Amino acid sequence: MKRLFLFLAAAVFISINVNSQEKVWANLARYGDANRQVLEAQAKGAKKPLGVLMGDSITDGWYGSDKDFFTDNNLIGRGISGQCTSHMLARFQRDVVELNPKYVAILAGINDIAHNDNYVNVEDAFLNIVSMCDIADRYGIKVVLCTTTPGNPKWRPQLTNMHEQALWLNDQIRQLAKDRRYRLADYAAALQDETGMTSSKYSKDTVHPNLDGYKVMEGILLKLLKK
Question: From 3.60.15.10, 3.40.50.2000, 3.20.20.150, 3.40.50.1110, which CATH number describes the 33-225 domain?
Answer without folding.
Answer: 3.40.50.1110
